[in-house]
Design a protein that fits this description.
13% strand; 8-stranded mixed β-sheet; single chain; 4-stranded mixed β-sheet; FakA-like_C; DAK2 domain protein; Serine Threonine Protein Phosphatase 5, Tetratricopeptide repeat; FakA-like_M; 60s Ribosomal Protein L30, Chain: A; DegV_domain_contain; alpha/beta; 595 residues
């Protein structure tokens, strides 16, 4: 029994952070292999690991002696700014909810307060998702919070409450295939829920409690009428005991991936009203069927919205009058895509899957206009990035099985032209859109990590971006995903970037060399769309042996001007190929490139 006054020391929080990074690092490949929802892109483990790694980096930057609340808030805020993917963003919000609003005095974090924190974490996670789906990390968070409150009300000590939360999340994870059909078909548990269970298991272990292990899971499965080696597979037949299963080094949580459907269902744990509605209830169709899921967008778009200028953690204080933009951002992004998650307070991280990245960014900018700005706008073409990691589709209705292949080479492009983003991303690059200002080195490093490659080539598109990229190359260190080195090529304009990527598409090997060769041939100029200026600019730019002229007009350029440019070009260089690209920029200039 406890009077609720025992508390978590700052040192224990730091130990939890370290153990969480270690645990997710060891489980990364297994979680990736079970990732089928919302998109089977095999990166949930990677995303959760990168998210907590950034949180750990923020904690390590704190001086010794900081109180518990300060350490928790640093962990959550670092995770928020470094969050990747659906799962990472939701996990960062779980941590933010657990940390709670910054208090005016650091109070003891006892068993009763920890139960309240788990409830706050579950509510915050659920509220962050525009369209909650049952059988996911949200259900695991709700199950953990309900169990924690029940344990605290029954008089459990602090460790008992944390263990109860871990076990409640674990039970919710086990029933995930019965709540989400895509998991049942694939024969896996929810990857995000699994990651959350591991985060809570790490906290149990630093408190001195036993961690979950394969033996315990086998006993639990047997009690439910099966065993991990003989549970129903995706086709209804017994699973092969030799099949890969989710696990963590050291014996933690073996045999996870094969626990499915009937043997996984635990109908005893119900969410507490204090936690808020369970996603399993809120998202289930009225007829009792399973919520439908599917591919929900060609691109993943993520960005940070912040008030003020520069580092939001320095410029936004508790006293700053900043409206909460989360609900408005969530609503705006739902109009242009799916898998919408928005988290944060005064600084927001947003995630959406969409077929139109430009509309997503424009919608966010409209919401934030006059109140906040966008930064760290990262766009990935989902299918291309999945292919780069060597993920193969399994048989119909089963989970994909990645080779855990780390690409040797990746490409980052930086641009301020929103109209170019879709094609740049489709070419295989991870795109950093410099929406409101030149990028910071940390933002370039982030997108370099997001390529999942060891060596990343950056095509900066401007002098300012090139400087940031060169600074980012100096920041590469252990903990930056699989990234080992960053190389910055001389691509001073968007037209250089386009030419380099086009050249890379023409070769199967030696893409970096092909890009360098193409960049050496490109000449570019920007000129106002004025007849008296365009002709001399073209005459100076074009050479008799040029093969391609690229025209990139601003949105305010009259289409007739483009026709004139084409006519002049073909008069000077008969047979030249002319390519017109939409920059998406709101100006009346022409950008011209010849090669």
């Amino acid at each position: 029994m406890t009077d609720g006054k025992e508390h978590i020391e700052p040192a224990l929080v730091r130990a939890w952070v370290t153990e969480t990074v270690r645990t997710l690092g060891e489980a990364r490949a297994r979680i990736d292999s079970a990732n089928v929802f919302p998109v089977a892109d095999a990166d949930t483990g990677t995303n959760m690991l990168l998210t907590v790694t950034e949180g750990a980096r923020a904690v390590s930057a704190l001086p010794d002696g900081e109180p518990t609340d300060t350490v928790l808030v640093a962990f959550a805020r670092g995770a928020l700014l470094g969050a990747r993917g659906n799962s990472g963003v939701i996990l960062s919000e779980f941590l933010r909810g657990f940390a709670g609003a910054v208090t005016f005095a650091d109070q003891p974090v006892g068993s009763l307060r920890v139960a309240t924190r788990f409830e706050a974490a579950a509510r915050a996670s659920y509220a962050a998702v525009a369209a909650p789906v049952p059988g996911t990390i949200l259900t695991a968070a709700s199950g953990g919070a309900s169990a924690a409150r029940a344990a605290a009300d029954a008089g459990a000590d602090l460790t008992g409450v944390v263990v109860a939360a871990r076990d409640g999340s674990h039970r919710a994870m086990l029933r995930s295939p019965s709540e989400l059909e895509v998991l049942s078909r694939a024969g896996v548990l929810d990857a995000g829920a699994y990651g959350l269970v591991l985060v809570l298991d790490a906290l149990c272990r630093v408190l001195g409690a036993d961690g979950l292990d394969g033996t315990g899971l086998e006993a639990e499965a047997a009690a439910r009428g099966g065993s991990p080696g003989a549970l129903p597979g995706a086709d209804g037949h017994a699973a092969d005991p030799a099949d890969p299963v989710m696990s963590v080094a050291g014996g933690t949580m073996d045999a996870m991936a094969t626990l499915t459907t009937d043997a996984s269902v635990d109908r005893e744990a119900e969410p507490s009203p204090a936690v808020g509605p369970d996603p399993a209830q809120a998202a289930a169709p009225a007829d009792g069927g399973t919520a439908s899921v599917g591919l929900d967008g060609e691109f993943e778009v993520m960005f940070v919205v912040e008030a003020g200028v520069g580092d939001a953690l320095r410029t936004v204080s508790l006293e700053t009058d900043v409206p909460d933009l989360a609900d408005a951002l969530r609503s705006a992004l739902q109009e242009v895509g799916d898998s919408v998650v928005v988290v944060g307070d005064r600084v927001w991280q947003a995630h959406v899957h969409t077929d139109d990245p430009g509309r997503a960014v424009a919608a966010a900018r409209q919401v934030a206009a006059g109140r906040a700005g966008l930064r760290q706008v990262c766009v990935r073409h989902l299918a291309t990035q999945v292919a780069a990691r060597g993920v193969h589709e399994g048989p119909s209705g089963t989970a994909p099985h990645p080779d855990q292949q780390v690409p040797a080479h990746g490409v980052v492009t930086i641009t301020s032209a929103p109209g170019l983003v879709p094609d740049l991303a489709r070419s295989g690059a991870v795109v950093l859109l410099a929406a409101d200002r030149a990028p910071e080195p940390e933002e370039v490093l982030r997108v370099a990590v997001d390529t999942s490659a060891r060596l990343v080539t950056v095509l900066p598109g401007s002098d300012a971006a090139a400087a940031a990229a060169r600074a980012a190359a100096l920041l590469v260190e252990p903990g930056a995903g699989d990234l080992q080195a960053v190389e910055v090529l001389d691509a001073p304009t968007d037209l250089h970037v386009v030419a380099a990527l086009a050249a890379a598409q023409l070769v199967e090997e030696g893409q970096a060399e092909a890009m360098r060769a193409a960049l050496a041939e490109v000449r570019a100029v920007q000129v106002a769309a004025d007849g008296s200026l365009v002709r001399p600019a073209l005459e100076e730019l074009l050479r008799p042996d040029d093969e391609v002229l690229t025209i990139m007009p601003g949105r305010r350029v009259d289409p007739l001007v483009i026709d004139v440019v084409v006519a002049i070009a073909r008069q000077r260089v008969p047979g030249i190929e002319v390519v017109v690209l939409d920059s998406g920029r709101d100006h009346a200039d022409l950008e011209l490139g010849a090669e």
